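Per your request, structure below.
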């Protein structure tokens, strides 16, 4: 991928020249994953995003200006971003080509001092699985899947688990590995499978939201705004003031239909 070649030259420059060469931007396809990146400033966070379930983009949907899930959000906040979009419905970021790319990429991003990861559901799995590899400092996970290795999570009997068995769940990066990353995990404790996956992240700060369910309907703008406010605090301060969201939680998730 062109990004690896560009970074391989860029990383050996003095810091002032590295900054002068930015921005670096572009996109590529790695097997069944599309990646878009924009590196703008060494002094700003570098945000990694992986797309969640429900964003089932097909290869024919791609075009020159296609933005993966999370990419435009990072642009709005003017931070560095590398965003990964899975292609197809049953896709768990298990492609050997993708994994090789991530292994190479991580070694070429050392000039960026603050690395963040943000993901929901399937994207939360990828952030958790690659966090140590990517040397993430902080993560924000909404109802993440921790793994689809059935020997580790025999209670995950969702239909997606059966479909996921076509992939390798014994090899590298098949389970959560946060390394030194700190952060937050947010989920609905009444969803038993989400709760059990969340319990596999004991070192993160847990924020439970009764009524949240699993996923965001794309037309529910109020709930999307609720999520985006948390993400904004996470990106800029790596801290979420949970207490300020109590009233919004009651309004958004506990109101009667």
């Amino acid at each position: 991928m062109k990004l690896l070649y560009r970074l391989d030259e860029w990383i050996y420059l003095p810091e002032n020249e590295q900054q002068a060469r930015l921005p670096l931007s572009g996109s590529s396809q790695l097997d069944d994953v599309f990646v878009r990146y924009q590196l703008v400033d060494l002094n700003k966070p570098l945000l990694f995003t992986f797309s969640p379930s429900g964003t089932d983009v097909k290869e024919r949907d791609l075009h020159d200006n296609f933005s993966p899930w999370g990419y435009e959000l990072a642009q709005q906040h003017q931070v560095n971003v590398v965003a990964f979009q899975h292609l197809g419905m049953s896709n768990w970021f298990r492609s050997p080509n993708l994994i090789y790319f991530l292994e190479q990429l991580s070694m070429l991003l050392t000039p960026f001092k603050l690395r963040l990861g943000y993901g929901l559901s399937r994207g939360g799995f990828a952030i958790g699985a690659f966090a140590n590899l990517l040397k993430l400092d902080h993560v924000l996970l909404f109802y993440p899947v921790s793994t689809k290795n059935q020997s580790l999570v025999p209670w995950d009997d969702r239909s997606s688990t059966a479909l996921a068995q076509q992939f390798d769940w014994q090899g590298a990066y098949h389970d959560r590995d946060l390394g030194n990353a700190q952060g937050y995990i947010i989920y609905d404790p009444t969803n038993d499978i989400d709760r059990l996956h969340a319990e596999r992240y004991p070192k993160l700060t847990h924020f439970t939201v009764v009524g949240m369910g699993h996923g965001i309907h794309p037309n529910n703008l109020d709930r999307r705004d609720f999520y985006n406010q948390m993400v904004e605090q996470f990106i800029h301060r790596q801290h979420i003031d949970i207490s300020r969201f109590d009233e919004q939680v009651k309004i958004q998730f506990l109101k009667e239909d």
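The radius of gyration is 18 Å.

Regards,
D.
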